[in-house]
Specification:
Layout lengths: L4 H12 L3 E7 L2 E6 L4 H10 L7 E9 L9 E9 L4 E9 L4 E3 L8 H12 L2 E3 L45
Parallel strand pairs: 2-5, 6-7
Antiparallel strand pairs: 1-2, 3-4, 4-5
């Protein structure tokens, strides 16, 4: 029997109630949201429930939405795969301005580097992570460069020529 999206939705809704919401298909991937306080338990259920079998974490990514309200400034998106039925699923949770969320390294060892990358670039604190430190940026950095308030270019650069960036310089 194929794993149907309606079954996944009913199973999660019966266990977590209104803390799982906005179920929909997005580009052939079944997607939904879960509140940040239960996200660990939702991921654990998706993995350990024998009728669901989402045993593979494909991706974990952070996102910054500076124009959203204070409670939805950041998002963590988890993409899981059930290899038995060849079904993919996307789970999103929103976080406030000072983002903190429980780690899932106890469920998926591969999330270690993915969570470190999300912390490195967005400043999302994964509570309980075994070694949350910089992974791609220099240890000396004090900011998180993928946040939207981080400047795109160094305004002090003198070696750049605007023509190479697709900008034209007005004649004086």
């Amino acid at each position: 029997m194929a794993l149907e999206t309606t079954y996944i939705q009913e199973k999660l809704s019966s266990k977590f109630g209104n803390k799982v919401l906005n179920f929909e298909m997005q580009r052939d991937i079944f997607s939904f949201e879960a509140t940040s306080d239960i996200i660990h338990e939702v991921i654990k259920t998706l993995k350990e429930d024998e009728s669901l079998n989402f045993h593979f974490l494909t991706d974990l990514a952070g996102i910054h939405f500076p124009d959203n309200d204070d409670e939805h400034q950041f998002s963590v998106v988890y993409q899981l795969h059930n290899w038995i039925e060849n079904v993919r699923i996307r789970v999103r949770t929103y976080l406030p301005e000072n983002p903190e969320i429980q780690t899932i390294t106890d469920l998926f060892l591969c999330s270690n580097w993915m969570e470190r990358e999300a912390w490195d670039f967005y400043g999302i604190n994964f509570i309980g992570h075994p070694q949350l430190k910089r992974i791609l940026n220099m240890d000396e950095m004090v900011s998180h460069p993928m946040r939207k308030e981080f400047p795109l270019e160094d305004s002090g650069r003198t070696d750049k020529d605007d023509r190479f960036f697709g900008r034209t310089v007005a004649n004086k």
